[in-house]
Amino acid sequence: MDPLAPNAALVIIDMQKGMHSPALGRRNNPDAESNIQRLLSAWRQSGRPVVHVRHMSRSPTSVFWPGQTGCEFQAALQPLALEHVLEKNVPDAFIHTGLERWLHTRSIRQLVIVGVITNNSVEATARSGGNLGFDVTVVSDACYTFNQSDLSGRLWPAEDVHALSLSNLAMDYATIVEAGAILTRSREAFREGV
């Protein structure tokens, strides 16, 4: 694992009120939000950049349709005034958002990605980040997903969907770690004045 750069960006994906909708079904990793909060606190303390990504759906039936409370950020993860906020309409946070340019303008090469849904927006964004040459880390216990049926109708538990998605990312696109490892790296870099 590379040392944590002084400008490593924490990218928080789609942590909106709509993610609590019962319509989304059963999820895994009930501690994801608290792990994201711990990481966000560490990033704020160290002065590293934070990017908040908000999904704005193109489907009127979505919990993320503009104007609904589902689009709002969760209370514990509200962006601060100086933190970057971007909106996306597709799973990948790099598509039509200016994220790549925003990162390049600030010479940011290292991304730490957290949020939801593991096998959708997290995976899509991490894949693009890796393909674009960024050093991408996905924090496994700061993400979650939901039960999912495959094309044959078989229901897969959220834990399996999550694990397979992270395994796909680990092959070519991202390093997969737990929040504790990132927090340790952050504290070490902070002590060393990095």
Distance between the termini: 16 Å
Instruction: Please give the order of strands in the largest beta sheet.
Output: 3-2-1-4-5-8
Tally of DSSP helical segments: 5
Order of helices and strands: EHEEHEHEEEHEH
Helix coverage percent of residues?
A: 25-40%
**Relevant CATH superfamily:** Isochorismatase-like
Low-confidence stretches: none
Beta content:
15-25%
- How many DSSP E strands? 8
Overall average pLDDT: 94
Total domains: 1
What profile does the largest beta sheet have? 6 strands, parallel
CATH architecture: 3-Layer(aba) Sandwich
Shape: globular
Instruction: Please state the CA-atom Rg, rounded to the nearest Å.
Output: 16 Å
* CATH class group: Alpha Beta
In CATH, the topology is named Rossmann fold
Write a concise synopsis of the structure shown.
By secondary structure, the chain is of the alpha/beta class. The protein is built from five helices and eight strands; from the N terminus they run βαββαβαβββαβα.
Question: Any overview of this molecule?
Answer:
The chain has five helices and eight strands. With about 190 residues, the chain is α/β, with parallel strands linked by helices. It has a single domain (about 10-190), classed as Rossmann fold, CATH 3.40.50. The strands form two sheets. The protein has a six-stranded parallel beta sheet, with helices on both faces. Helix 1 (about 30-45) links the parallel strand 1 and strand 2 (about 50-55). It is globular and about 50 Å long. GO terms for molecular function: hydrolase activity.
